[in-house]
Amino acid sequence: MPCFFHELTGFYCPGCGGTRAFLALITGHPIISFLYNPAVIYAAGVLLFYAVWGILYVVGKGAIKRPKFYLAFVWIFIAILFANCTVKNLLLL
């Protein structure tokens, strides 16, 4: 399915390449995934971080602290999205 924003404007949106990046990541191609959209690799890393931390919390029966939500992770994700979008659109010129 083509990107509606790209079809309408000719520019890449911040999420362009996200589906291809996800598919590349789950098929074992992290470098290709990073090239499509680095935010997908970052999000997978953050999710893995919380999953491991959550498993350790459950297995340890509360011996470690419960995983906190860090707003910085969200801001970093947004910054990666827009940096990726900016670089891709500058390369179009």
Largest sheet: none
- The residue-averaged pLDDT reads 90
Q: Report the end-to-end length measured between terminal Cα atoms.
A: 24 Å
How many beta-strand segments? 0
Given the C-alpha coordinates, what overall shape results?
elongated
Radius of gyration using CA atoms only = 16 Å
Helix content: over 70%
Pick out the low-confidence regions. none
Summarize the helix and strand pattern as letters: HHHHH
Query: What class, by secondary structure content?
Result: mainly alpha
Number of separate structural domains: 1
Strand content: under 5%
Number of helices: 5
Account of the 3D structure:
This protein has helices at 4-9, 18-26, 30-36, 38-59, 71-92. The protein is mostly helical. Helix 4 (38-59) runs antiparallel to helix 5 (71-92).
Key descriptive features of the protein:
0% strand, 93 residues, mainly alpha
Give a short synopsis of this structure.
71% of the residues lie in helices and 0% in strands. The chain is mainly α and 93 residues long.
How is the secondary structure organized here?
Layout: H1 4-9, H2 18-26, H3 30-36, H4 38-59, H5 71-92
